[in-house]
Design brief:
The complex is a heterodimer.
Chain A (H helix, E strand, L loop, with lengths): L1 H6 L23 E9 L6 E10 L2 E6 L9 E4 L4 E4 L1 E6 L29 H7 L3 E6 L7 E4 L1 E4 L6 H4 L6 E6 L2 H4 L15 H32 L13 H10 L3 E7 L2 H14 L5 E4 L7 H7 L2 E4 L17 H7 L4 E3 L10 H10 L5 H6 L3 H6 L17 E4 L10 E6 L2 E5 H4 L13
Parallel strand pairs in A: 1-4, 1-5, 6-7, 10-11, 11-12, 12-13, 13-14
Antiparallel strand pairs in A: 1-2, 2-3, 5-15, 7-9, 8-10, 15-16, 16-17
Helix pairs in contact in A: 5-6, 5-7
Chain B lengths: L10 H7 L10 E8 L7 E9 L2 E6 L9 E4 L4 E4 L1 E6 L37 H5 L6 E6 L8 E7 L5 H4 E11 L11 H27 L11 H10 L4 E6 L2 H14 L3 E5 L7 H7 L3 E4 L16 H20 L5 E3 L6 H10 L4 H7 L2 H6 L17 E4 L10 E6 L2 E3 L39
Helix pairs in contact in B: 4-5, 8-9
The chains are: A alpha/beta, B alpha/beta.
Chain lengths: 437, 450
């Protein structure tokens, strides 16, 4: 809505104008990671004794015989494993204040990006677990929560510099027990819905309002066009930040990341999405996804689940550890997420469980915490595998990431080393990224 | 819909017209004191002449007018009246603190989301005047509770009617970066979304009325909305938006919001502003830094309070003014609803803020931020006669105001008055009214909601 911006008087502002946003932080350093086993998860497969060349924050070359330019700094990865940085498709890291806007059933207007906390120590701890990108989500308090923030773990940078530039927007949806609030009580407060039926009503009502809103703006656009450049401009409709988001979901511009557990509610959301002609990008948790894998695959959604976490509440009783493998076997893009600052530090072992339960291949299992979640967040052209031209988001492990003795030695984001175990261990305990501006 | 007229009244005007004030007209000459003008050099053994509510003369070689009542202030220190640029002076409180910062606990009548609410309507003149016991002559008044607590009023503490005290009304529209519990916004992200939507709505409202006024025939009359009315002057860049920040990133958030809607911004509170000193400096952001270093904190919905973190926050807040100064940032110091304003300022000096900078930060600096430096904040000819005579250096621990002149009227402080901590005085960044505070078990935990 340009009317507002145009009308106000910029010159009267008390504070000085904002400087132009800085471009994505990139390093000019050229790096050669040499001698390690490179698990590219791309067409080049796994390369023993290979080299990853990093220039301008991107991967310049990957292979066995890569010419290393003079002046490049060498990182010796002999005996180590080099993999793409891990992508966590479900995180609540680095959120300041409440992770939920609980007071309304639909709060698509609230933005995680507004409340990022660059000092959250978990950013660093997750780097120490090889994580380089995360889908930071609103909680599951209400059917339609807030807007997500896909971030890179650029520890020490300003909050706006954490944002994964160009990542598609997303909104958190939630179904089931948390939404109907059977797991907890807020004294004195009742908020519709308190049943799964009610959740569906809230969603349908919200999208009907979004359709009306969309029509209203289309009508306005038509009037503006009809009036021509010299005609009287009609008054624009009221801009509604909540409905803006929902309309953009209808228009396919915003991803839906839907927290869910039970098969019936998953089917409900698929039917509702079909009715309103939008796509659910990911089903999150989706512990009964194995029961409706065919339907999820047909819808084209991804599924982001836990490896072997179940039984912790009524809607998790039917969960099985074979969930990831079964959904993958049905052709669904499957990721394993953390939903936890703690679990995020060991997602590589969570991925390994897909091999134990269901016999997923090693490569496919590793993709469940790299390339697959990258697709789910719409950032797979940038990260998720080690390929020429992609961002140099890289984790270097002491042993194969599925080895029970492995640990992360070094983590790079945009070709910058943000975690270096050998170096960081000499610094003593770390509590926050102090003073970063 | 049209803007409410802004009352930017120079009190001198009122004084000369003789309205509203008794005991006008006396002329005083304060002779022989150490005169700290703030805007210029300190004059040892100077004279200050006050006439008709204004400063007539200041300096070393000033002739004492024949009709003046001469007061010998040898050995005493003369300063401008102190300005509390952000506090609760005169607001009703269940336990009023006489320390000047003003009471704390919620007063009836104002909703947490009512930009149209006027602090003017809630000030009790008799309570406000008590602040003079601590040398405060000017105060910006805004409730600390709520998210959009309304619009503040800037008062000069003389006379006996609030209307006669008004320097500027409304002084600013306020947004506290706080949250509610049972109604939107219940999260910081909700507060930001609410503010953003309110500003969009205010713009739309303005456009609706503009179109209607341009050609009312055949057009449906827009619906009057007092809350959206309240934003109009802010949106037009004529009224200051004061955002109360309690976290480092709140300063960034406030700036981003002001940039998005091109509004004039000042940030109040800002106990961690030194962490963003470079940003504040680069943006020339007007700061009203609170000396309420240890406000009662809101109960965390996520378990026990983190005592280590709280201790660090208090330490940070205490050294914040000194660190800001070292970084070359200019700022005002304000009570932030602390029960004892001066005690907080003295603490900042103990933590390394130079005393002359501190005095400026509670006189001329807040006057600058609030746009009244042309009429008060320093001892200069023609400015309002807000003057305090102190037993010694006002920032020394045992200094007492001996005489307080407001609009040229002499007030002799009650020396027995001692600031007492007011349990009701919480920070604006904390939670709203007690009745609205979440009990420990009232909100879902993060684990519950995964």
């Amino acid at each position: 809505m340009s009317g507002l911006a145009a009308f106000v008087i910029a010159l009267l502002a008390a504070a000085s104008p904002a400087p132009a946003p800085s471009p994505a932080p990139r390093t000019a350093e050229t790096l050669a990671i040499r001698g390690g086993t490179i698990i590219t998860l791309g067409p080049q497969g796994t390369i023993a004794g290979g080299t990853v060349l990093v220039r301008d924050g991107r991967i310049a070359a990957v292979g066995r015989d890569v010419a290393v330019p003079a002046g490049a700094r060498t990182i010796d990865a002999t005996g180590r494993y080099v993999i793409p940085g891990i992508v966590d498709a479900h995180s609540h890291t680095a959120i300041e204040d409440n992770v939920n806007e609980c007071t309304d059933a639909v709060t698509a207007e609230v933005r995680i990006a507004d409340v990022l906390d660059q000092h959250d120590i978990n950013i660093y701890r997750e780097l120490a677990g090889g994580v380089t990108s995360a889908n930071v989500l609103h909680g599951s308090c209400n059917p339609i929560g807030g807007q997500n923030a896909v971030i890179k773990l650029r520890w020490g940078k300003r909050p706006e510099e954490l944002l994964f530039e160009g990542a598609p927007r997303g909104v958190k949806f939630a179904l089931g027990e948390n939404v109907k609030r059977s797991n907890f009580r807020v004294p004195g407060a009742t908020r519709f819905p308190v049943t799964r039926m009610g959740v569906e009503v809230v969603l349908r009502d919200a999208f009907r309002r979004a359709q009306d809103y969309k029509r209203e703006w289309e009508e306005y656009d038509r009037k503006v066009k009809a009036a021509g450049p010299k005609g009287e401009k009609p008054l624009p409709p009221r801009k509604d930040l909540e409905l803006d988001e929902l309309r953009d979901i209808l228009d396919g511009k915003v991803y839906v990341h839907a927290h869910c557990y039970r098969a019936d509610e998953i089917l409900m959301l698929i039917r509702l999405a079909d009715e309103f002609h939008f796509k659910v990008r990911t089903f999150q948790h989706v512990l009964e996804g194995y029961k409706v894998a065919t339907e999820i695959a047909r819808h084209g959604a991804g599924a982001s689940t836990f490896a072997d976490s179940w039984g912790y509440k009524v809607e998790a009783y039917d969960a099985i550890p074979y969930n990831a493998a079964i959904m993958a076997a049905h052709g669904i893009n499957v990721s394993i997420n953390s939903d936890s600052d703690e679990r995020a530090r060991r997602l590589y072992w969570e991925a390994a469980k897909a091999m134990k339960y269901g016999g997923v291949s090693e490569t496919e299992a590793l993709k469940m915490v790299t390339l697959n979640p990258a697709w789910q967040l719409g950032i797979d052209k940038r990260v998720g595998s080690l390929e020429t031209g992609k961002d140099a988001d890289i984790a270097i492990f002491s042993a194969h990431p599925f080895d029970p003795s492995t640990r992360v030695e070094m983590t790079l984001v945009d070709g910058t080393v943000y975690f270096d175990r050998a170096k960081d261990e000499t610094k003593g305990p770390l509590t926050s990224a102090g003073g970063a501006q | 819909m049209r803007a409410r007229p802004v009352l930017a009244l120079a009190l001198a005007g009122l004084a000369l017209s003789g309205r509203g004030h008794a005991a006008r007209g006396e002329t005083y000459a304060l002779v022989g004191g150490r005169v700290v003008t703030v805007s210029g050099p300190v004059v040892e053994a100077g004279t200050v002449v006050l006439r008709d509510g204004l400063i007539e003369a200041v300096g070393a070689g000033v002739t004492v007018p024949a009709d003046a009542r001469v007061i010998d202030v040898k050995g005493l220190t003369v300063t401008p009246g102190l300005v509390d640029g952000f506090g609760g002076v005169g607001l009703p409180s269940s336990r009023p603190g006489p320390g000047g910062g003003g009471g704390g606990s919620p007063a009836p009548g104002a909703g947490p989301l009512s930009p149209q609410s006027l602090a003017l309507d809630r000030v009790r003149a008799a309570d406000a005047l008590k602040a003079r016991d601590n040398g405060i002559t000017t105060a910006l008044v805004i409730p600390r509770e709520g998210v959009l607590p309304g619009q503040s009023v800037l008062l000069n503490l003389s006379g006996d009617k609030v209307e006669g005290m008004v320097l500027r009304e409304p002084a600013a529209l306020h947004l506290h970066m706080a949250t509610l519990t049972r109604t939107f916004p219940g999260s910081l992200m909700g507060t930001l979304a609410y503010a953003r939507q309110a500003l969009y709505d205010a713009g739309h409202y303005r456009d609706e009325w503009k179109a209607y006024e341009a050609s009312p025939r055949g057009r449906k009359r827009p619906r009057f909305d007092p809350a959206l009315e309240a934003w109009q002057e802010v949106l037009a860049g004529r009224e200051l938006l004061v955002v109360t920040a309690s976290r480092e990133n709140d300063v960034r958030r406030a700036l981003a919001l002001a940039d998005e809607f091109k509004v004039r911004l000042a940030v109040a509170g800002a106990p961690q502003a030194f962490l963003v000193a470079e940003l504040v400096k680069a943006r020339k952001l007007p700061l009203l830094v609170s000396v309420n270093f240890d406000p009662p904190r809101a109960a965390s919905p996520f378990g026990a309070p983190d005592e280590e973190k709280e201790r660090r926050e208090i330490e940070d807040a205490e050294r914040n003014p000194a660190e800001l100064h070292k970084a070359g940032v200019s700022f005002a110091l304000v009570s932030g609803h602390a029960p004892d304003f001066l005690a907080g300022v003295r603490k900042a000096v103990e933590r390394g803020l130079p005393a002359d900078v501190a005095l400026r930060a509670i006189t001329l600096a807040p006057a600058e931020v609030l746009g009244v430096a042309d009429r008060l904040g320093s001892l200069e000819t023609g400015k309002i006669a807000d003057v305090v005579v102190w037993s010694g250096d006002p920032l020394a621990k045992d200094a007492k105001p001996k005489m307080v002149f407001v609009d040229g009227q002499l007030y002799e402080p009650d020396e027995r008055a001692k600031p007492s901590p007011s349990p009701g005085a919480a920070s604006p960044g904390a939670s709203p009214s007690p009745g609205d505070r979440p009990g420990p078990a009232s909100s879902p935990t993060a684990e519950d909601l995964r």
